[in-house]
Amino acid sequence: MVVKSMLTIALLLIVGQSVLLQANKAVNNTVVEEYKKNIYRLPKYVMPIHYDIKLIPHIVEGKFTFDGEESINIKVCEATNTIALHTVELTIDETLTTLTRKENDVNPVPDYVQKQHEYNGDTQILTIRFEERLDPGTYQLYFKFTGVISTVYPGFFQSFYTDNEGHKVWLAATHFQPVSARKAFPCWDEPAIKATFKFSIKHYPNYTALSNMPSIRSEIDSADGKLWTFFETTPIMSTNLLGFVIADYEYISNSNGTMKIWGPKHLLPYAAYHLDIAEKATRELERFTNSTVPMSKMDHVSIPHYSGATENWGMIAYEQNLLFQENSRSIIDTMVITHELAHQWFGNLVSPAWWDYVWLSKGISTYLQFYITDKFIKEWRLMDLLVVEYEQPKLFEESVYSQPINLRITNHLYVSAAFSNNIYTKSAVLLRMVSHFLTEDVFRNGLIKYLQAHQYSSATPDDLWKALQDALDESDVLHDDFKVKEVMDTWLKQTAYPVVTIVRNYDTGVINVTQEKVQIHLLDTETNSAWWIPLNYITKSNPNSSSTLATHWLKPQDESLTIEGVDINDWIIVNKQLTGYYRVNYDIINWRRIIASLNSDDYNKIPILNRAQIIDDVFHMIVTEQLDFIIFLEVINYLSREIDPVPWYPAFRIIHRLNYYLRMPHVAAIFKPYFFNLTHKLFEHIGFDEHSDDDPATIKIKADFMKTVCLYNIYPDMLDKCRAKATAKLFAYLESPKNIKLSDKQFICFGLMQANESIWNHVLQKANETRKYLIFLGCSGNLDIVERHINYLEKYYIYDHLFTNMLQNMSNIDATIDLFIKEFDKIVATGTVKFILRLIIMHCGEDQINKIKAFAEQHGLDINMYLVERTKVLSKINNNLAKIRNALENNQFSVAMHITLNNATSLNRDEL
Ligand SMILES: *[C@@H]1O[C@H](CO)[C@@H](O)[C@H](O)[C@H]1NC(C)=O
Ligand SMILES: *[C@@H]1O[C@H](CO)[C@@H](O)[C@H](O)[C@H]1NC(C)=O
Ligand SMILES: *[C@@H]1O[C@H](CO)[C@@H](O)[C@H](O)[C@H]1NC(C)=O
Ligand SMILES: *[C@@H]1O[C@H](CO)[C@@H](O)[C@H](O)[C@H]1NC(C)=O
Ligand SMILES: *[C@@H]1O[C@H](CO)[C@@H](O)[C@H](O)[C@H]1NC(C)=O
Ligand SMILES: *[C@@H]1O[C@H](CO)[C@@H](O)[C@H](O)[C@H]1NC(C)=O
What we know:
single chain
């Protein structure tokens, strides 16, 4: 087992770099200065008050267009002779644009006719220039325009579903967030420029039009027999939260019709679960926000060929799968409903003042999707899953690449950066931290104040911190030593996170606490980072973790902090329940005491989330070479007692990360019996077969366990079961590739190893249809089949995939090398020789190395670098294997480890 996994880090570097390339576009500090005179921002001297929009979409195959007209009541705040607003991809009939003065108390004023339209395609801003000066006052601006109902979203787009008879049924829908309302009608398309909207839509009478508001009436147009649907005027809102759908949908609804799920008729029977969740989530959100849902109705509308879900106010759009999965009770399906409903308050009622602060709405809704769903599905343990599925992977990711939460988004071209996974996840995890150092009650009261202060308007992070501070000041929670804003600025404006180090003086009892930034592998320019860190701890004699308030604050300006009063014979574990977003390292004596407790019958006195924390943190410490490998082994040894699935999340992630090494034959020889013993109790507890009443954590860990057991052939008598499961997954993937996670790739590959000719023909045929399947080529133990892939590869040039799969499967290294030699000329042409050579060198044994060396020499390839790397990695592995043997000889481990090592040594004494 190797600790500093070079390949892993190399891969992470690659992943990190592509993230970085995207991010750099968005976060460019040199443009901060230009920000104020940003030509992409609309001038604020003319503001919209109310839009009256009439649209006539033509939903006809081959002619997806729409006609539109709108009257906008605007307010000129300062005298000007221009009006600027957004529009894109629309054809405006300029001769029909009018501006009318609209003062009740003034005599009618003639229209402003002398005007000129100037359009800037780069800024997407239309400027209308008038010859006369427009004095402050209210006006009405009128446009007539046409547009295309696009084949792609965002914007106003076409889609279709296939009905039970196999007919395509067309429909039209919108996705405006973040900057596409301007594709449907000219508008002030910035989140903080809010107005009211009245929509009217004309359509075939066999269709239904839906929008944010309920329809007030409908009326047949006698001229063409089509139907006008008129909607109530919206509250004051942002343009990007508008939406409409025109489809021949039906619905199911709650008892009074305030909550509906819309979709194709034949799918509606599958939506009862989702309706129930939507109702429960709404009730909980109303309780939480101490207010009723801000819209009089809530439609949940399925859109075919859509991805994810969008929180349009009063009319939430979902991809079809999310609402209509047969038998679906998945966490994702469920929480997405809570998430979008939370947005009805956070994001819609109060919007971020600019795209820089999208985290305000995304982060709060992501946190609440866990917190609120947990209120009505307690048995899912969502608050634990938030930690092991979101926080810990984020801590890992941010030790590779990190960017701050507060962004600088200057214009629409870079706005997608605000919707990155980083924003959603990290801000949610940080809000959980806030809710713990303030208490749940103060946090909730603060959010209520935030909603009240900024409803029908917009807000910045400082507004949120102020609301939370006010709630804190009114509470009886002690808070003299910190200010919410000051604390949170250190977490939002800086990248990554701190590692806290605890060094105890066992003579004086004084505990010294220091912080430093996590070691980042990639281009880290911020070096002087320091945080306001909330600290609390449990000790051996007081392991009560129920209060997660900070008992101490480690401040950025202080070099260190001391904690006193802990019994020198106790262990201490800092960061109860992993509520603070940081890692903790200890002096070796404290680590050994924690290890002793973990490996005793008292292990469950340490809270579950802290057990997960310790596994994850200690792994980080050995990867960064801050702790000895043996400490890691001693910590995970405790897992032989662990039957709760939650601490197994980080454990399986580590196994997954080390996969490459664990599958090397001489490492696998140790890993297999080790894993067998480590998981014995877990296996007894959770079993191998899926049960319909398993909670999500059990399902996840059972699947991870099963995958590991199968891939490493831990229980030879399970091989048939493993094959059956892998084949089932493979078939599910062939059936519906979208529903399979990439993390299942390896397991599907395992399924393919046993696949027969006819399954392979099927896969190859699919690969011909869509490149998606190419990731599985090379997942075969049958060299005839591998050879047949070559035809496909010539077309797609992905030898790197083929060899990665072949080597990962350890199927037949000799054959892999032969294939490499045979295909060499073609591989040269694809430019992947170095990548594949390195891969082979890192995987092969001593005897094969000579073959590679000879070949390289023959072809003048310099492989020295890879040989050096190989030697380094192998020496590290051997080093660690020697440590394991040593520990065994010194009787350092518990029974589980002993059995393992005895087996391993007997299997593999030569290699050790
Ligand atoms: C940042 O923006 C400025 C001005 O547009 C440009 O000159 C510079 O190259 C950009 N820097 C990066 C890192 O993208
Ligand atoms: C709706 O009516 C129009 C015009 O009669 C027709 O072309 C279209 O196929 C109908 N659509 C559906 C889904 O029934
Ligand atoms: C509609 O019914 C739900 C319960 O299904 C209830 O909570 C809600 O208050 C009702 N709304 C109105 C407007 O009656
Ligand atoms: C909830 O609203 C009620 C009525 O407006 C008010 O009396 C109560 O104090 C509010 N509770 C909170 C926690 O804000
Ligand atoms: C705490 O540790 C820091 C950093 O190692 C050191 O500078 C400081 O003197 C220590 N404080 C105490 C009280 O030991
Ligand atoms: C843990 O501490 C809380 C107060 O923080 C207290 O209410 C609770 O009773 C304690 N639990 C135990 C088991 O001592």
